[in-house]
């Protein structure tokens, strides 16, 4: 088959379009989907694609961009606070794993240099696969997600000395020249890192500001890409990991005002390239080796993954992780990573290892990467529920039934909870973000870990005896699910909820909720009222305008519940609403009356009811004439 | 010099002329603190401790408001309900307000002449201040003769408002300086009399004044 760039591009894209949705539908993450797509188009199944190494070269940029984006999202203060986890967990994991595989290599009669490089190659995990999976599951910001991230970050940093050591292990002559270049390399490294930090801080943000002024979106995208590519080139020149450089650059730009634009511009490139990266790994798997030595390969994969799992678990024990965290932590990181390919390639070129070992390592590491999403699925299905059931049993022991259950304890639920807490009203909290839970427990809240959409969790939270369920989740779909679930199973439970927007509020009211409020409604009205005040309106006039608006707007909303949602009808209604509102605000009852006659009101004053008063509008917005 | 707390209550001051004019005259006087209830508490959620502290810092408490429904705007009632607490304003050992002066300063649409048995409002104007007078008494305060700017519905010429506001200013200064003899204050039905010596409304107004 003849290969050209466009055809290759089409094959990759088409494979992605087919494999990823299927993988997602089956409950595997997109990572596994990409890997499968790669296997599918690779030389061993359909043989659609040719030379992998070029593609791989481009695809590695996906990892670089991912690190750049993570840097952008990470606040340097947080990173500084994480310095102990990074050094502690990461250092322990890399050190112990390295020693274990090195010992293993020595045990199999390897030369110490070979064994050391084996240890280095296998000590690292796959940043790409792990972060992508965490992100998809929304676990990047949880406690355990941060622990995992700390380890990955340490590994990314550890690649630098590893790459620096490999040439020294070379069995060839010429070590002398290496040691002199060591000094110049140190200078290079310092220069590049200083360049990124200082340049990012003083030059790049001005560059983005300048480019943003031109108003050209393409130019902005181009600059963002140029920054990432440029940083990678500089890092490569200094012999450092481009991913680490990109991470640094991202970190420097994290407080830049164009952060979000940069983020959204790079995001699609990252997505596509990272996909490409996984596909290339899939396509690059050497199935010949697997075919001829299945037992050896299987044994190697088992040793790799179980060995890493063991070390990770020990690290978790040393640092006192909870059982649940530790098992997730260990399962997630127990694979070889993409840096293994880079390191193995370097080791081969310095003749520290031979080609046979390289091929074996690449295959084993690839398979371990392929198995990680599967391992995570197994973990989610079989191991994770055991930990939640632990929590459930715990709750039964507590045996207290609180009158209020709050589902979701983020920014919204917290305020509700604190208000109730102030009156010593017992609340049970359902929260799916593990990072909140430990803090809450310290303050004697009863907290259940998990999704409120699960009936068993609601039951164990005491929904059968509770008086009130407050649904304060940030996901509109889950909110609706919880409401309908609770309506069905706990008819005596009163339910109030946080609605995201008008549409959501309508859906909730239609679902028979007792009360809901749009999450930004009160606060935006309050801000509007403040705006009126600052523009010179009297405080109570502005306040009343806000009240009128709220009552009116709520009225419109509940009127529209159950209405046929035909678009045209709604549009005409909202047009009508605008005029109405106008009349309403101008006519605000008390203000208007005093306005017109400009007097204290008392009996001698003829009260002219010119036009419709606000009250009649409010009471009669079904077009009846009242209060004349 | 006595310190005056001017508690203003007008729900639509932005459109007011009478009250606004009175306010303008009082504003900026030494010893006068203006406290605009509808501005400070747009939601009528009154900070009781703050109000009580204000009361304790002043000697003469002036309530200035339009004469709504023969009484006061709602926030004044809310204010009295909350701020004049048992133990603070009245009751055992409640001495916080002892000896302070209470002055109602109102603007009303009807003229004095409409407040008599033959008039539209049937009762003498002073009678409508009875609840305030009694409230002040229970709090151990002296109820000063009210200041009234009447007839603003029909006679709201700029000139008249100007004169009345000037009068108001004089009265506040006089009260603050203590320049009116006890007997004269006791004798007057309305505060206006202390400065205005020709009192066209006197006949009707005094008719219903029992004191």
Please report the distance between the alpha carbons of the first and last residues of chain A.
86 Å
Largest interface: A-B, 21 and 31 residues
CATH homologous superfamily classification of chain B: Flavodoxin domain
Largest sheet of chain A: 6 strands, parallel
Q: Note the quaternary state here.
A: heterodimer
CATH class of chain B: Alpha Beta
**Can you give the mean pLDDT of chain A?**
78
Largest sheet of chain B: 6 strands, parallel
- Assign the CATH architecture of the largest domain in chain A: Up-down Bundle
Based on DSSP secondary structure assignment, what is the total number of beta strands of chain A?
6
The SS-based structural class of chain A is: mainly alpha
Low-pLDDT parts of chain A are 173-179, 389-399, 589-628
The CATH topology of the largest domain in chain A turns out to be Na+/H+ antiporter like fold
The tally of domains of chain B stands at 1
Kindly report the average pLDDT value of chain B.
Answer: 90
Outline the fold blueprint.
The complex is a heterodimer of chains A (628) and B (211).
Chain A: H1 5-25, H2 30-41, H3 52-73, H4 76-81, H5 83-107, H6 112-123, H7 127-136, H8 143-169, H9 175-214, H10 217-237, H11 242-252, H12 259-284, H13 287-292, H14 294-318, H15 323-333, H16 338-349, H17 355-398, E1 404-407, H18 411-422, E2 427-431, H19 434-442, E3 446-449, H20 455-460, E4 468-471, H21 476-489, E5 494-499, H22 502-510, E6 515-518, H23 521-534, H24 539-560, H25 567-586, H26 589-597, H27 614-619
Parallel strand pairs in A: 1-2, 1-4, 2-3, 4-5, 5-6
Chain B: E1 4-8, H1 18-26, E2 32-36, H2 37-40, H3 48-56, E3 60-66, H4 74-83, E4 101-107, H5 130-138, E5 142-143, E6 147-149, H6 158-177, H7 182-187, H8 202-207
Parallel strand pairs in B: 1-2, 1-3, 3-4, 4-5, 4-6
Domain Flavodoxin-like fold (chain B): 2-170
Protein name (chain B): NAD(P)H oxidoreductase
GO molecular function, one term (chain B): NAD(P)H dehydrogenase (quinone) activity
């Amino acid at each position: 088959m003849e290969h050209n760039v466009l055809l290759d591009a089409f094959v990759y894209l088409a494979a992605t379009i087919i494999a990823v949705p299927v993988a997602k539908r089956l409950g595997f993450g997109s990572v596994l989907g990409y890997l499968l797509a790669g296997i599918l188009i690779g030389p061993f199944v359909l043989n659609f694609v040719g030379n992998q190494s070029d593609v791989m070269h481009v695809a590695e940029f996906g990892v670089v961009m991912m690190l750049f984006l993570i840097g952008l999202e990470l606040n340097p203060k947080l990173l500084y606070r994480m310095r102990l986890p990074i050094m502690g967990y990461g250092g322990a994991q890399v050190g112990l794993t390295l020693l274990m595989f090195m010992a293993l290599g020595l045990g199999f009669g390897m030369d110490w240099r070979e064994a050391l490089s084996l240890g280095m190659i296998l000590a690292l995990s796959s940043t790409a696969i792990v972060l992508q999976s965490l992100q998809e599951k929304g676990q990047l910001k949880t406690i355990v997600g941060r622990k995992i991230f700390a380890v990955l970050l340490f590994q990314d940093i550890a690649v630098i000395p590893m790459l620096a050591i490999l040439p020294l292990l070379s069995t060839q002559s010429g070590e002398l020249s290496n040691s002199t270049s060591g000094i110049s390399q140190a200078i290079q490294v310092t220069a590049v890192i200083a360049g990124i930090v200082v340049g990012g801080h003083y030059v790049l943000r001005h560059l983005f500001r300048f480019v943003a002024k031109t108003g050209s979106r393409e130019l902005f995208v181009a600059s963002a890409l140029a920054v990432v590519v440029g940083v990678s080139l500089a890092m490569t020149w200094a012999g450092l990991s481009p991913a680490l450089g990109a991470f640094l650059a991202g970190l420097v730009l994290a407080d830049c005002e164009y952060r979000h634009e940069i983020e959204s511009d790079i995001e699609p490139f990252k997505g596509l390239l990272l996909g490409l990266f996984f596909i290339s790994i899939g396509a690059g798997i050497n199935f010949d080796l697997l075919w001829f030595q299945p037992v050896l390969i299987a044994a190697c994969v088992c040793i790799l993954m179980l060995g890493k799992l063991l070390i990770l678990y020990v690290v978790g024990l040393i640092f006192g992780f909870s059982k649940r965290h530790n098992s997730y932590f260990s399962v997630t990181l127990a694979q070889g990573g993409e840096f293994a390919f880079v390191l193995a390639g370097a080791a081969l070129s310095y003749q520290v290892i031979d080609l046979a070992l390289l091929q074996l390592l690449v295959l084993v590491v690839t398979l371990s990467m392929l198995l990680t999403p599967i391992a995570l699925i197994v973990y989610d299905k079989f191991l994770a529920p055991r930990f939640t059931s632990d929590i459930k049993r715990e709750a039964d022991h507590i045996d207290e039934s609180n009158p209020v259950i709050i589902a979701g304890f983020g920014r919204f639920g917290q305020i509700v909870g604190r208000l109730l807490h102030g009156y010593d009203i017992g609340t049970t909290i359902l929260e799916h973000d593990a990072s909140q839970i430990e803090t809450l427990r310290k303050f004697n809240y009863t907290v259940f870990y998990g999704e409120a959409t699960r009936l068993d969790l609601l039951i164990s939270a005491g929904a059968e005896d509770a008086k009130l369920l407050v649904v304060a989740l940030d996901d509109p779909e889950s909110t609706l699910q919880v409401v309908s679930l609770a309506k069905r199973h706990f008819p005596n439970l009163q339910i109030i909820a946080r609605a995201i927007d008008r549409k959501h509020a309508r859906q909730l009211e239609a679902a028979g909720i007792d009360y809901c409020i749009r999450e930004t409604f009160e606060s935006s009205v309050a801000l509007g009222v403040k705006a009126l005040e600052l523009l010179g309106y009297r405080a109570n006039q502005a306040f009343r305008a806000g009240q009128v608006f709220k009552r009116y707007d709520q009225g419109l909303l509940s009127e529209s519940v159950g209405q046929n949602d035909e678009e045209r009808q709604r549009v005409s209604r909202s047009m009508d609403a605008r005029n109405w509102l106008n009349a309403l605000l101008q006519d605000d009852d008390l203000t208007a009356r005093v306005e017109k006659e400009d007097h204290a009101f008392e009996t001698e004053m003829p009260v002219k009811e010119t036009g419709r008063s606000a009250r009649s509008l409010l009471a009669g917005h079904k077009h009846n004439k009242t209060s004349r | 010099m006595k310190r005056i707390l001017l508690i203003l209550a007008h729900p639509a001051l932005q459109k007011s002329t009478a009250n606004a004019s009175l306010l303008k005259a009082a504003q900026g006087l030494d010893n006068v603190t203006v406290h605009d209830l509808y501005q400070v508490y747009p939601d009528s959620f009154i900070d009781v401790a703050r109000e009580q502290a204000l009361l304790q810092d002043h000697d003469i408490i002036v309530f200035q408001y339009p004469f709504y429904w023969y009484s006061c705007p709602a926030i004044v009632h809310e204010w009295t309900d909350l701020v004049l607490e048992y133990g603070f304003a009245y009751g055992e050992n409640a001495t916080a307000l002892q000896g302070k002066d209470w002055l109602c300063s109102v603007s009303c649409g009807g003229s004095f002449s409409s407040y008599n048995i033959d008039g539209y409002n049937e009762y003498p104007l002073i009678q409508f201040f009875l609840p305030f007078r009694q409230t002040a008494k229970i709090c151990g305060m002296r109820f000063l003769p009210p200041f009234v700017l009447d007839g603003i519905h029909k006679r709201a010429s700029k000139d008249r408002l100007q004169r009345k506001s000037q009068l108001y200013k004089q009265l506040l200064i006089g009260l603050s300086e203590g320049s009116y003899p006890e007997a004269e204050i006791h004798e007057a039905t309305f505060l206006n009399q202390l400065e205005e010596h020709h009192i066209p409304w006197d006949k009707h107004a005094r008719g219903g004044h029992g004191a």
